[in-house]
Design a protein that fits this description.
Blueprint (H helix, E strand, L loop, with lengths): L3 E7 H11 L3 E2 L4 E2 L2 H18 L4 E2 L7 H10 L4 E11 L9 E2 L2 E2 L1 E5 L2 H11 L8
Antiparallel strand pairs: 1-4, 1-5, 2-3, 5-8, 6-7
Length: about 130
């Protein structure tokens, strides 16, 4: 199981969303659209959603190290935007304490930065070495 992933807006995810939204039957024409017509409308809607959306969702598979996330983003920079590296870490409740279910901390995706890394290493019991 990987500990890192990328959240953001992806053209592929927006296209999938458009495929679910656009019907194959056109009420104006009162007929089924051809696959070419439907594909064109899906592509237009997907591009519109990609340009307007700011909702960040998980768009990459899980990786073992953050540099693999950066490499994944670099492969097709025009296909993703608003990217954010995330790391697997303990979910905290409103009081700041880790949420525990059946004796095991619940894990969630947290923004990747030094503070989260320090808290994640503290959670795992490892000592973080401070570098100046």
């Amino acid at each position: 199981m990987g500990a890192f992933c990328v959240f953001g807006v992806s053209r592929q995810v927006c296209r999938k969303r458009a495929e679910r939204k656009i019907p194959t039957f056109c009420p104006k024409l009162e007929r089924e659209m051809s696959p070419a017509e439907w594909g064109m409308r899906v592509a237009e809607e997907g591009d519109r959603v990609f340009a307007e959306s700011s909702k960040q969702v998980r768009i990459s598979p899980e990786f073992d190290a953050p540099q693999f996330c950066r490499d994944w983003i670099a492969v097709s920079p025009s296909e993703v935007r608003l990217t954010r590296l995330m790391v697997r870490g303990p979910k905290t409740g409103g009081d700041g304490k880790p949420v525990v279910r059946k004796g095991v901390p619940v894990l969630t995706w947290l923004p990747y930065d030094r503070a989260v890394t320090a808290s994640a290493s503290a959670w795992s019991g490892k000592k973080e070495v401070a570098t100046a």
